[in-house]
Write a structure and sequence with these properties.
By secondary structure, this protein is α+β, with helices and mostly antiparallel strands. It has four helices and four strands; from the N terminus they run ααβαββαβ. The protein has helices spanning about 15-25, 30-45, 70-80, 110-120, and strands at about 55-65, 85-90, 95-105, 125-135. It has a four-stranded antiparallel beta sheet, with helices on one face. It is globular and about 45 Å long.
Length: about 140
């Protein structure tokens, strides 16, 4: 293991409280260890970039549709990546929140780029990329 580097993280108080509750339930000894696991998980997923051929999957988003310019941003991003989007489903969860499920198929790098842009848009509360095989190379 290399040299340890300290850095600061800013979170909303409510989000940190929820994170601490999960850490306690999962018996993490420290926040640092939980954050290391999250970073490792992200790095492993990035290794999928070496996958040859197409992958299929879904991008799931939950967002506040009242957030200024968010709908335009999400729509523009999807139009910019129309070649890999098969379908999108939009659901109203309540007065403020929407769920969007975007079905994708294509090169991992393109799908990951789209998912990253969508998940990081200001106003998106939750974003998740779930990948699967297209079945093409499985007997």
């Amino acid at each position: 293991m290399g040299k340890v580097v300290r850095f600061g993280v800013s979170l909303e108080k409510e989000l940190l409280s929820k994170f601490d509750a999960v850490l306690k339930k999962e018996k993490y000894p420290t926040r640092s260890e939980a954050i290391r696991d999250l970073v490792r998980d992200k790095l492993v997923k990035k290794e999928w970039g070496d996958v040859r051929g197409d992958v299929a999957g879904t991008i799931t988003l939950v967002y506040d549709h009242h957030k200024r310019e968010l709908l335009n941003t999400l729509t523009d991003l999807q139009h910019d990546h129309h070649g890999i989007i098969i379908s999108a489903q939009h659901v109203h969860l309540d007065h403020n929140n929407c769920l969007e499920i975007i079905i994708v198929k294509g090169r991992y790098s393109e799908i990951d780029e789209l998912a990253s842009c969508l998940k990081s848009a200001k106003g998106v509360k939750f974003g998740h990329l779930s990948l699967a095989t297209t079945g093409k190379n499985i007997s």
